């Protein structure tokens, strides 16, 4: 008799999985995490949000988030401006769960390299995501044009590009360190590092490298933000990879970042450290 009572539930679950492309409980968990993440972006405490959505502890929420999306919630908070989850139709659910099919990505093995540049400390309410930072260059205390010129004139660089790296995230205050610098691959240049410069060793390993679309300069910051959102909400959660927290993601700006060289358009690269899902 118990089997008979459970049959409609079983049939519903089978139909849901066939239509949506994911088991119903996996979908429910994902939606709860999406709403919880939005609540966190509004300044609520992690433990309060975790309790509200049935995760019990900060660690339990973080573990569930990593299992579902393949990266820690702090990564999403850093790179994407959270919005209230909408009420998706079946087709949109299938698109979101299934991942972004047409996103161009290269999975590459990179050697370790050194970034030398200038470090500044920011708070996420001021700079809500890393892709916002270019829009804040004129309002931050550092004048990046002269500083970048110093870097390019100080070191013997094998390529003309800059790196943007974020680290030392304090989830309780929203503070993080941001390093804007260049890749120094000539070890003889180490003696040229000046007192106000900082260096960051970037370990080698497997990276997923994404290239933003080439867009007009005025659309560039939004293009970077949109690419981060696509990576973290569509590609990474359903890829065979997960974020490797032992290393750092970074943004790479080469000559394609210079609008005057490309008829007013720009593009750049986003590199995510990954490993095969266990």
Walk me through what this model shows.
With 278 residues, the protein is an alpha+beta fold. Helices cover 38% and strands 24% of the residues. Strands 1, 2, 3, 4, 5, 6, 8, 9 and 11 form a nine-stranded antiparallel β-sheet that branches. The longest helix is centred in the first third of the chain and has 19 residues, at 2-20. The chain is elongated and about 70 Å long.
Number of DSSP strand runs: 11
Main sheet summary: 9 strands, antiparallel
Rg for CA atoms: 21 Å
Sequence stretches where pLDDT stays below 50 over 5 or more residues? 90-102, 135-142
Number of helices: 9
Question: What is the helix fraction of residues, given as a range?
Answer: 25-40%
Derived structural class: alpha+beta
**DSSP strand content:** 15-25%
Which shape, going by the Cα principal axes? Answer: elongated
User: How far apart are the termini?
Assistant: 39 Å
Mean pLDDT: 80
In N-to-C order, the SSE pattern is: HHHHHHEEHHEEEEEHEEEE
Question: Topology, please?
Answer:
Blueprint (H helix, E strand, L loop, with lengths): L1 H19 L3 H18 L4 H7 L5 H12 L3 H7 L10 H9 L6 E6 L2 E11 L9 H4 L7 H11 L7 E9 L4 E10 L13 E5 L2 E7 L3 E2 L3 H19 L2 E3 L6 E4 L11 E2 L2 E8 L2
Antiparallel strand pairs: 1-6, 2-4, 2-5, 3-4, 3-9, 6-11, 7-10, 8-11, 9-11
